[in-house]
Glycerol operon regulatory protein (Streptomyces regalis), 253 residues
Amino acid sequence: MSQTVDRALSILPLLAEGPADLGQVADRLGVHKSTALRLLRTLHEHGLVYRQSDQRYRLGARLIALAQEAMENLDIREIAHPHLVRLNEQCGHTVHLAVYEEDEVLYIDKVESRYPVRMYSRIGKPVAITVAAVAKLLLADLAEHERRALADKLDYPMYTARSTPNAPAFLRELDKVREQGWATDLGGHEESINCVAAPIRGADGRVVAAMSVSAPNVVVTADELLTLLPLVRRTADDISGEYSGRNATKGSA
């Protein structure tokens, strides 16, 4: 199996050089044409290669889209990180950055609280999608039919008495978040943890990521944490401006 995967992956850099026919692929891999054809068909089914009308193969649009998506996510993390660190220095609480991928919301960056009592979270770990503030922001930006389709297929675990209980309640919360432009999780996932979040937008105005500040009740109350919302939103706006190029435009005008 590992040899098959290795051979399949070896096709991609070959096609990156330009379109190639079945014989060229087989020769490069050192395999029979039937073996090369099976590999190409599998890659084609996943959209990673495309067969042209002249029977030659080239890289598929799906591969290009995946590469672009990966670059954008890496980009936003690189751009956002100094801002997240600065926000953490100002407020002292845990700061997260999250994105929406394949029906999951994932943390892609985190700056730890300076207080001894901290929340547990990990980069790369999916968040509790029905209650997390960053998830609400990312999902609220979806088209209405996408929001409804996703809400209908989600489970709604009652982590606490404040958790979102069902799809209608979830959709109402997303509508509210969409209108106000920010989100909270006030004890919805863990009774003792509160969170405020703001969206990061690309040049087209769509939400590309969300950032949040979280803290336990023993450090600050929910009301005290909410006073940080203007600072969180300003930080998100600064990241949005840098990511979309708006800040650079202002500076050069």
Remarks:
- Residues 248-253 have pLDDT under 50 and may be disordered.
- The domain at 3-65 is CATH 1.10.10.10 (Arc Repressor Mutant, subunit A).
- The beta strands are 49-51, 57-59, 94-101, 104-111, 183-186, 193-201, 207-216.
- The radius of gyration is 22 Å.
